[in-house]
Amino acid sequence: MINIRKLENELWEAADALRAGSKLTSNQYCMPVLGLIFLRYAYSRFKLVEAEILKDRPMRNGRVMPVEASDFKAKSALYLPVEAQYDYLLNLPEDIKGATLTSKDGQVMTSLGEVVNNAMALIEEQSTQLTGILPKNYTDFSDELLAEILRIFNNSALDEVGGDIIGRIYEYFLNKFAKNIASDDGVFFTPKSLVKMIVNVLEPIHGTLFDPACGSGGMFIQSGDFVNSHGMNANSAMTFYGQEKVEYNAQLCLMNMAVHGLTGVIKSGDEGNSFYNDAHQLDGRCDYIMANPPFNVDKVKSESTQAAGRLPFGMPGINKNKEIGNANYLWISYFYSYLNDTGRAGFVMASSATDSQGKDKDIRESLVKTGAVDVMVSVGNNFFYTKSLPCSLWFFDKAKPESIKDKVLFIDARNYYTVVDRTLNEWTEWQLKNLNAIVWLYRGEVEKYTELLNEYRQVLGDDKTFAEHIETLSEQVKAIEVEGKQAVADAGRGKGKKVQQEYDEKVEAIKATLTIAQEAQWLYEKFGDGEYLDVPGLCKVAYITNEAKGDNEGVSIEDKGWSLTPGAYVGVAPVEDDGVNFEERMAEIHEELLVLQREANILMETISKNMKEMGL
Question: What PANTHER family does the record tag this protein with (predicted)?
Fold first, then answer.
């Protein structure tokens, strides 16, 4: 089995090393490199679809009829002319000048860069969605550099693990470049785990999906995957619309969608500025809204915004310059306004917006009273690639069941995550499922919760409880670590490192299963076989108004001044007794502090003495 993470890292390191050796910046390098991965992925899909077409291909005069562009269109795949196929580019002679190659316009090509530019132009002819989108600046690369990058992205391991994996490699590069070149003006890429959480809660199956701040298209990709995983064709079931002010990001979005076999209509530039334009005329017509808009945008022209409409709860605060000082509640109003009568919305928002005051509070009160606010989730720091700020996930549902019509589910997930590295956290697939399970139970969808428990049991095997699995696997980890330590000691000279690596891999494999067992136990100990309960420090269902609450216990959202901050409702988880005597431990700490102070005083005296001797 190929280690995909290892392959991703190797490809990135090789490509980035070439960039470092050239005179190109990350900005100059990003789009052309993504274009080549796009080309490699398109070729992989082309070969897979071609094989399917040829299986049932009719014969004529004893020969199989050649495949045509129309055959690929029928299968929602991209047709590639010979000169745009990856193998053709790889096998070109080194002397392009001597090969007498001509472009689609009949011009003689004298460099590999021109040949790749021509390949991109040929692909654009096959897809109206890609017209004018693909990079065509490959003459900025030397032929040697370009040939080496083509070779790197033709790693045979990609074919060993199947064509679809190249889409994942593409996504990995997209995220890596996002870390390097993301803007500082609030426009940055949405982490995959946040996108997945939004898609999982909204459950898009069919209809119109609009992202008014679509960036590189992550919401569309995950929604397409969700629809396809339910046995439907995303392009047939969904209609994708996007607006994106930054044209560079819109290009990435269209390429990203094409890589994943999706079609959509994206408006960019001034037309794509959602503050002043409803470019697709979608107000009140959307089944789903998903977005990660730029946070805390200021200096938005109030008169232009007023004229553009989509403000069912009125305007946010306006300053003396006739500008909106913080656009968060413009976005929130838009997301509500775009929904049809049964629509759902899920979006990322600055944490401050759940409790902001002034006109924001008035808008929030009106919004909450509609009953459309469904779920609120607090997310901790370090989920974004380039920012450490916390955020919130907001969910609207204009067709909530009567049982929860006058309620809102609050989830505080700030302490629930997996550390990727020092600056990045994420939710794993199992953690996403667990958070989703809380929403299912709140909605009364117990069967989905039961299916998840069964999935855990199937992965873990046998009839042990989740707690028993944790105990058994923990013991196995300890035993293998002890065995490995002895094996390394017994290994001959020069063999210890290899033996250690073998045991490390065994331990990691068991730890991976142990983590699954721990996530299963995390969920089961809170909700058992499927009954929603408020869990202190994690989740709480609150009534919207005091009238709706009636004689029930707890505070309403009205009681909390229309705050939508989860922490204001869920409280704090009880602290487990760790068996430490508080008074004894405080005495120990006090003694340690005194010792450290004495050592610090001695060091200061020594430093002062040395400085005097140096005449300072």
Answer: TYPE I RESTRICTION ENZYME HINDI METHYLASE SUBUNIT (PTHR42998:SF1), TYPE I RESTRICTION ENZYME HINDVIIP M PROTEIN-RELATED (PTHR42998)
